[in-house]
Amino acid sequence: MTKKPIAMENQNQRNKEGTGRGIAAGLKFSPYRRGIQLILLIVILMWIITGCSLLGQNHGTAGNPGENPSAGTPQRAEKENNPDGDSNQGDSQGNNQTENEGNATEDEGTLGDSLEKEYPWLTSLKEEDQREIRKILTHPLIKNAPPIPENLSDLLAYPPGRLAGLDPQKDESEFPITAALLPVFRPYDDDRDWGDPTEGEIATATIRERYARALLSLTMERFPRPEEIYKDFVKPALPAGEIKAGEYGEVPYRAQTNVEIILDASGSMKEKIGGKTKMELAKEAIQSFLGELPKGVNLSLRLFGHKEAPTKEDACQVSELVYPLGPYKAEEFGKAMEVTPSGWTNLAYTIQQAGEDLKGYQGESYTNIVVIVSDGAETCGGDPIKEAEALKKSEIQPYFHLIGFNADPKGKEQLSAIAKAVGGLYRDAQDAEGLKNELKPLGEWISGWDQWRKQAIKAAATHRKEMVDRINRAKKEWDEKTYRLMNNTDKLVDMSEKENKLTAPFGASSYVRSRLTSHFRDSNSLIAFLLYQEEHYFKTLIEKLDSDFNHVVEEIDQTYEAQKEGEKK
What we know:
The chain is an alpha/beta fold. The protein contains 21 helices and ten strands. Helix 12 (278-291) packs parallel to helix 18 and helix 16 (384-393) runs parallel beside helix 17. 34% of the residues are buried.
């Protein structure tokens, strides 16, 4: 054992003694010094307790996603020193959507279990990759974007996006704002740049599909719906119970129409107008009128005053049914009118005889019309108003159409009074053209079913033309929106690449172009699907239009033929 020098031993001894004296001195405090030490000890303890309380409060604040911790706290320092910390702390760097940062962060925490169920490969990734991919998958645009449409019904139900209807040149300022809404996908949109080959490939495929969905949710257009393009044919209404034909008045429209013409052939009808007798002009006008009537109408002709008689009494009994009620035969009817005006105007007696002519056509199955053409008043002492009223009240229920053909004042007055008494129509005709014009409304009404068929088919054809125009306009709109969707989507992809949100050129941008914007018809892209639908969707509408049009025309013809069969019976 080496022996220490004496001088060193003496020095050590002095040090020990000095130290001992110091400790002893410390134990021998005066009461005054003890009081000061006690106060200092209490202050130190209070400071420690206060500090612990503040730490607890700051910890509670950091755990509330609705508040921000104050600067300088341990939690803030930890976050600043560890920018890749737990995603539950709300780190949203790289996301320019300040408004959605809190929502995305909250979803990352609350949707963790559901994400793992939907994407079981998440848990096999590295913690950092898992955290970043969670941010992408829970981003509002990614999370809420609908699937890419796979059929026509899904396509038409897809809501329009933020850029719908906007032009990349005219509305250029909107595109950077919209592009900023998208999160950063890089490097996870290219499996060659990160992660395990198996899990990375699955994750990248998911990221690319979600990116394509998000883009489409921003650029999707609203395509024309069938219910907005196609309007069904309106089935033509049948002729109403009461039909108006100009000034002709209201006449009950029934299965069988009978028209009895009462023509004045008295001596005054020998007077000439423009080189022809009134009788000749009346024949021409009546035959022209009858030639326009439908074949199913029954006609009869009664003349009065067309034969000379030895006495007035005999002359006032001259009224003859020269063409019995039946279908119109022009030649026979023309021969029946070959008479010479010569007698008296026995209008009252003739109206009475007209009732006998129509006696077999009573009831609701017949529309009976009595047309009287005369140039003067009653000259045989009868009361034509009384006879007309009696016939009107009978089961025949005829409608009276009276025409004063270049009539004298008394004739006009009496004919007008008859029409007024029975609710008929009186018109005045000064010449042949006037007589034709006054018979025209009657012809239009009598031709009701033929006119109805003609007008119904015309209306259906007009509707078809309007539908063809609507379909063509919608097809043009479809085409414009398809190419606008393609251009707007490509522009957003380009902007995402420039802002380094995507891995160019083989990342999500390449996938989006093949999934959405490729216009090659043999591709599986949305644009190719839209171009296919442009051809087939509108072709189907045209086929439906033609089918519906043919069906409507068939219904019109069936209704018309059924009515004609009723007339024959």
